[in-house]
Amino acid sequence: MTRTRIHNFSISLDGFGTGEGLSRDAPFGHAGERLHEWMIATRFGAPILGRTGGTAGVDNAFAQQHEPGIGAEIMGAGKFGPPGWQDDADWTGWWGPTPPFRTPTFVLTHRPRPSITMEGGTTFHFLDAAPDEALRAARAAAGGRDVRIGGGPTVVRDFLAAGLVDHMHLVQVPIVLGRGVRVWDGLEALEEDYEIEVVSAPSGVTHLTFDRRTS
Ligand SMILES: NC(=O)c1ccc[n+]([C@@H]2O[C@H](COP(=O)([O-])OP(=O)(O)OC[C@H]3O[C@@H](n4cnc5c(N)ncnc54)[C@H](OP(=O)(O)O)[C@@H]3O)[C@@H](O)[C@H]2O)c1
C-alpha cells in the first residue's frame, strides 16, 4: 500500500509554516529564510543554494528522507509562486529549468493552466480539485510509489483535516513568527490519530514524526 508523506515541513514555535507579506522577493514573507536555515546547513540541503558540504548529523538524517520512494508531489498555489503568479503566463515556479521534484507534481489552484514539462523529470500539472481527488490523480501518476504533500501550510492543514496523511515529519524551529499561515488551526486532537515521536537536534530544531495509528 502506498503512503502519503510530508517531509521537512518547518514551523515556528507558534506553528506558522510561512510568514506574512509573501512576494517575489520574499517567498516566505517576513519569516525570511529562518524556517529553513536548519536544512540548508545539511549535506542534503546545501545544494539547494548551490553550496557544497553541509552537516551529516541528525538534521541531515531526517532531511534526506524527503526523496526516497516518492513518485509524485502535491503542492499548493502558494508554494508554486508568489501571489498573482496566475496572471503571469510565463511563470514556471521558483526553481528554474530543472526543478528538484523530478516526478509528476500537482499544483492545486483555482485557476488551472495546461501542464508544463520541465527538465529533469518534473511535470507540473494544475488541478482545481478537492484533496481526495487530487490524491487519486497523484497516486495514479506515482508509478506505485508514495505521494508527498509538499506544502505550504494551507495544503498541509487541508490534507491533515481530510485524514489523508500517513506520515508527517515536522521541524519545529526555535523562532516566534507571530503572524503568517498556521498549520494547526482546526486540527484539534490530531494527536489521537497519530503516534508521535520527538527528537531534539544539537542545531536547536526539534524533529517531530507523526505516523498514522493502525488501530
Ligand atoms: N514551512 C515549510 O516547510 C514550507 C514548505 C513549502 C512551502 N512553504 C511556504 O508556504 C507558503 C505557501 O503556503 P500557503 O499556505 O500560503 O499556500 P499553499 O498551501 O501553498 O497553497 C494554498 C493555495 O492553493 C490553492 N488551493 C489549495 N487547495 C486547493 C484546492 N483543493 N483546489 C484548488 N486550489 C486549491 C489556493 O490558491 P488559489 O485560490 O490562489 O488558486 C490556496 O489559496 C509559501 O511562503 C511557501 O514558500 C513553506
From TrEMBL:
Bacterial bifunctional deaminase-reductase C-terminal domain segment(s): 6-190
GO biological process: riboflavin biosynthetic process
Gene Ontology MF terms: 5-amino-6-(5-phosphoribosylamino)uracil reductase activity
Record-linked SUPFAM superfamilies: Dihydrofolate reductase-like
Database matches in InterPro entries: DHFR-like_dom_sf (IPR024072), RibDG_C (IPR002734), Riboflavin_Biosynth_HTPR (IPR050765)
PANTHER family in UniProt: BIFUNCTIONAL DEAMINASE-REDUCTASE DOMAIN PROTEIN, DIHYDROFOLATE REDUCTASE FAMILY PROTEIN (AFU_ORTHOLOGUE AFUA_8G06820)
Name of protein: Dihydrofolate reductase
